[in-house]
Amino acid sequence: KIETIIEDPSYYSYDEVFNKEIYKDKLLVINEGDVVVDIGGNYGFFSLYAKQFNPSKLLRLNHQKRLLAV
After folding, report:
1. Which of 10, 21, 30, 38 is positioned for an S-S bond with 60, CB 3.0–4.6 A?
2. Residue 64 and residue 66: Cα distance in Å, rounded?
3. How much is the pLDDT for 40?
4. Radius of gyration over alpha carbons of the chain, in Å?
5. Phi, psi angles (nearest 5°) of residue 28
6. Greater model confidence, 38 or 62
7. What gap in Å lies between CA 27 and CA 1, rounded to an integer?
8. How far apart are CA 10 and CA 16, in angstroms?
């Protein structure tokens, strides 16, 4: 068994959102023109996911200053 160790913890969030498509669910529907608020935006992967649906406004809130530039 070969195990890959990835040191960047953001990889796992990226993998869940874009490879495993955890947001593709009937409970989460974003339509064009919707207003989307990403509370606790962290690395912004949900915001990137939501952006593909062309929302009229996308607000990303994060309390960690080191992540605001991401």
Report:
1. 38
2. 6
3. 81
4. 14
5. -120, 105
6. 38
7. 36
8. 10
Q: Which CA distances in Å does 42 have to 18, 28, 51? A: 16, 19, 16
Give the C-alpha distances (Å, rounded to integers) separating 37 from 1, 13, 30, 59: 41, 18, 11, 5
Rounded CA gap, 34 and 14, in Å?
23
Residue 59, token pair as written in the block: 């607000």
Under the banding of pLDDT at 50, 70 and 90, the label for residue 6 is low
Distance CA 37, CA 65 (A): 18
d(CA 23, CA 14): 12
CA separation for the pair 22, 68 (Å, rounded): 24
Q: Which amino acid is at 35?
A: V
> Using one digit for the tens of pLDDT, what is the confidence trace for 38-55?
988 778 899 999 999 999
